């Protein structure tokens, strides 16, 4: 991306009126050169994230980036945590309270052996998502699958740790998606846990379901993310022995962090306190989320062969 790329003036003027902003910049680097700017929220197509980070490092400005972290792993690997500036990825799933609830419940079901992660939705014809050319003709690996799939990788790895390998088959159902938009796969985690990941939002009339059951030798725990209801975690204890007590508990996740507001709140606290440890959505974490989808794309292109999920060197 040329650093002096022109910002469309009419569009900028229209936005400043809506947002109550008085200043308009003529190009990207001017934003970072402004001594009154402390942080840049780079709402750019992700193939430009690395360029924006390079400007942030050059001018010592904190920066937020859109997810996925970059267009490909080559770019993502160059976006590293900087000692002097804060780099945060705008992904609210990483701050879900349901992940903490899952982690606590998992510790009660004995040794974990398997999981089934399923996120299925009907195709949203009226979604503004399809109106942007950079999503209709994606330059980022996986396109539709990485845009939404990194959310699923966030919950999966947040609860069970990092993914080691994947065998996947993907297909494209809708031309509007720009590329493959459904994913069926088998995964192995670094912990040895095995499971299945199914993701797609391109189907015809079907129920929106987001289910994540995890099974151990002394019970199971399941997450159900509600679209019209609060998220719910169900814990079922028992089964380690024939005599083991069995019981069930349900935990309703009220006021889930399912909007960008929580990300901004945490970011504000981190900046105010000067404590970057409050930021969970670091470049290293976001790299793994993209790497899972990258491995799924590669596996599918190789007929479903096992592909190791790449890690930062």
From TrEMBL:
It comes from the Eukaryota. Residues 10-79 form the Gfo/Idh/MocA-like oxidoreductase N-terminal domain. Residues 107-308 form the Gfo/Idh/MocA-like oxidoreductase C-terminal domain. Pfam families: GFO_IDH_MocA, GFO_IDH_MocA_C. GO terms for molecular function: nucleotide binding. PANTHER family: CONSERVED EXPRESSED OXIDOREDUCTASE (EUROFUNG), OXIDOREDUCTASE. This is DEKNAAC103179.
């Amino acid at each position: 991306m040329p650093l002096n790329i022109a910002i469309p003036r009419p569009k900028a003027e229209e936005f400043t009126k809506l947002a109550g902003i008085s200043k308009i910049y003529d190009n990207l680097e001017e934003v970072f050169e402004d001594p009154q700017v402390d942080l840049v929220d780079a709402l750019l197509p992700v193939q430009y994230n690395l360029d924006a980070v390079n400007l942030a490092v050059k001018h010592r400005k904190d920066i937020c980036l859109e997810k996925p972290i970059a267009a490909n792993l080559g770019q993502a690997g160059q976006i590293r945590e900087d000692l002097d500036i804060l780099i945060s990825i705008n992904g609210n799933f990483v701050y879900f309270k349901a992940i903490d609830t899952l982690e606590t419940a998992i510790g009660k079901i004995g040794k974990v052996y398997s999981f089934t992660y399923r996120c299925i939705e009907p195709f949203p014809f009226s979604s503004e998502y399809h109106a942007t050319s950079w999503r209709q003709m994606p330059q980022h690996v996986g396109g539709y699958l990485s845009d939404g799939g990194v959310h699923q990788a966030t919950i999966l790895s947040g609860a069970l740790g990092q993914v080691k390998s994947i065998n996947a088959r993907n297909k494209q159902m809708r031309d509007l998606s720009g590329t493959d938009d459904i994913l069926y796969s088998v995964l192995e985690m670094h912990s040895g846990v095995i499971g299945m990941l199914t993701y797609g939002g391109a189907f015809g009339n079907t129920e929106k379901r987001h289910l994540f059951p995890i099974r151990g030798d002394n019970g199971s725990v399941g997450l159900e993310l509600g679209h019209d209801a609060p998220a719910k975690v169900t814990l079922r204890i028992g089964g380690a022995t024939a005599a083991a007590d069995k019981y069930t508990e349900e935990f309703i996740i009220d006021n889930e962090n399912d909007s960008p507001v929580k990300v901004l709140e945490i970011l504000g606290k981190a900046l105010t306190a000067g404590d970057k440890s409050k930021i969970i959505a670091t470049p290293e974490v976001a790299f793994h989320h993209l790497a899972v989808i990258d491995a799924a794309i590669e596996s599918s292109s190789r007929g479903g062969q096992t592909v190791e999920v790449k890690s930062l060197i």
